[in-house]
Design brief:
The chain is α+β, with helices and mostly antiparallel strands. It has two helices and eight strands. The relative contact order is 0.10.
Length: about 160
């Protein structure tokens, strides 16, 4: 190597190469991170920083679109039993029926062959008669007569509850 070559500046190849790109990316990332931290940092003067108090905004008053829900107590009061009169009958068709009468509601229920039939006194009807379409019951002191549609009447006699 000659003396002249030693005094000439070395020529660098064009472009950064893979290692140079990686160094540039790392430097850029560190610079952005430093700027972000500097922007977020508050100078500490030693005195406590007072945060201004913000008064809460009043809640908007809107007209209710539906009535408020009913108050549900945390401990529900026991529901008193509904007054009911109950009697059992053995009928001539071999079935046993149960008669339930709810005097406060003026409704009777005939339980026959596992089905509940809700019966109401017909308007202007006589006492002891309850009906629904296709079914009429005449209640006596110790008996019951069931009329099912156009079929024959079924007579029933009161028995002890089983």
């Amino acid at each position: 190597m000659s003396l002249q070559q030693l005094h000439q500046p070395r020529q660098r190849p064009q472009g950064l190469g893979p290692l140079g790109v990686l160094r540039l990316a790392a430097f850029s990332l560190l610079a952005m991170l430093a700027l972000a931290l500097a922007a977020c940092e508050r100078p500490h003067t030693g005195a406590p920083v007072a945060v201004p108090a913000v008064a809460p905004a009043p809640a908007p008053t809107l007209a209710p679109t539906h009535p408020p829900a009913a108050h549900i107590p945390s401990e529900a009061a026991p529901i008193p039993p509904t007054p009911m009169q109950r009697a059992h009958f053995a009928c001539t068709d071999g079935l046993r029926v149960e008669w339930r009468y709810f005097p406060l509601q003026g409704v009777a229920v005939l339980v026959r062959a596992g089905r509940n039939h809700e019966l109401h006194p017909p308007p202007g009807g006589s006492a002891g008669v309850f009906a629904q379409p296709g079914l009429e019951v005449q209640l006596g002191a110790e008996s019951l007569r069931i009329h099912l549609g156009a079929g024959p009447s079924i007579d029933c006699q009161r028995v002890a509850a089983s």
